[in-house]
Amino acid sequence: MHATAVLLYLGAALPVVLATMSQGHTNYTRDYQIQYTGYADTEAFCHEWHTACVAYAGPRNAHHVLDCVFDQPGPIIFAFCGSAQKDAKGNWSPALNPDVPIMPHTVDMIHTVPNATLVADPTGAAIDKRNLFIPSTHKGLGFKNRANIR
Predict the structure, then answer these.
(1) Quick one: residue 37, left, alpha or beta (phi over 0 = left, psi -120 to 50 = alpha)?
(2) Considering only CA atoms, which of 9, 19, 150, 30 is closest in space to residue 78?
(3) DSSP letters of 47-95?
(4) How many whole angstroms from its chain centre is CA 113?
(5) How many CB atoms lie within 10 A of CB 104?
(6) pTM beyond 0.70, yes or no
(7) d(C-alpha 143, C-alpha 148), whole Å
């Protein structure tokens, strides 16, 4: 009976633990600014981003590599989708082979993510100058605010 109670307690705590996880980290040298609409929050968008990145990398015999941190204030966030090629056995490990290149796919796969638009590339160069906005939480990180550039 005690073991069942412990399992029920751990099972009840699991959703709380999952809710605090992020996917990857923010890497301002490779992450694009992406604007999303129609998602409850950044976490919901990041789950969709993850699904799309996996779907894009898988058929290329590659393992997805992504950044999409849940605690970013939306609707404009930093995110990345890429992949690392798998070996002949279908494995990959950056720990065993740190020289495996990460192939970027953000630009190629963004159209597969509903209600997502590229706003700026990793250098901060505007992609859609009409909608560009850098949240105040991201100022001072090497990105220039190019709002209202025509």
Answers:
(1) beta
(2) 30
(3) HHHHHHHHHHHGGGTEEEEEEE-TTS-SSEEEEEEEEEE--TTS---TT
(4) 12
(5) 16
(6) no
(7) 15
Contact 83, 102 (CB under 8 A): yes
- Select from 137, 128, 18, 14 the least CA-distant residue to 78: 137
Measured between alpha carbons, how far apart are the two ends of the chain, in Å?
68
- Measure the CA–CA gap between 32 and 10, rounded to whole angstroms: 37
Residue-level pLDDT at 28? 83
- Per the rule left: phi > 0, alpha: psi between -120 and 50, beta: everything else, 24 is left
Which residue numbers in the chain have pLDDT < 70? Answer: 1-23, 93-98, 126-150
Structure tokens at 47: 């789950």
Residues pairing with 23 in the sheet: 68
Bridge partners, 47 (sequence order): none
CA dist 32 and 119 (Å) reads: 7
Task: Output DSSP code: residue 16.
Answer: H
